[in-house]
Fold this sequence. Notes:
Blueprint: H1 3-33, H2 54-57, H3 65-89, H4 94-115, H5 126-133, H6 139-165, H7 173-199, H8 204-224, E1 227-228, E2 234-235
Antiparallel strand pairs: 1-2
Helix pairs in contact: 1-3, 1-8, 3-4, 4-6, 6-7, 7-8
Amino acid sequence: MLPIQQVALSGGRVGRRVRSVVTTGSGVLAAVLGCAFLLQGLSRSRLPVAGSLISELEARNQPDGALFRTATLLAAMATVVFAAGLRHRLPPGALGTAGCWAVGLSGLGAVADALLPLDCAPSVDAICRRNEEHGNLSWPHQAHSWSSVLGAAALLASLWLLGRHLRSAPGWRGVSVLGRVGFALLVTYSGVLTVMTAFYLPGVGLVQRIQELAFSAWLAVLALARRQSRGGCSRP
């Protein structure tokens, strides 16, 4: 083999290794930062955990709101990077491509969440809720609800798309089952959360936090999963 060919092959292996590390790292980072709300007790926020929405931690009038918005923005950017790398890790196919696009779209929705924060916390502030009902709050506040729905819907779609895509792929059965079962459970769960959020019912904050933990777990599984060969060795 010529030296230039050896260099090219070595460079290709290094490139694939770097891409694998970046993909795994960005996916894990997105999952971890997506759980930043767990640190609420260390912040100056006095919002009730069980009765307030995660987005309200990031509201303009909340102490440390900028800190939580930064965590969301970093998680969102990591999600987009992860989605781009994930496509090269999965078996080829239209459903796989669509699933990775869905993961990326969820990241873009979270970017909008961070850049378009709520003005106040309607779940616990009667004046804020009344202004929200009458459309008297800023357009970013109103747009935030739509970006949040977009992000959640995209991540739910990724569960179904990737679950279906990987069901016949050797070595990916566990991820496939998790995606399909997770989709069925979380669609129902998200429907309940939607109703609770619309009326700011008691316990809405706890229910939403459980959903977000499930979403972060899905990203972590995708990031850490490897196709298992018949010999039991993992491949990046």
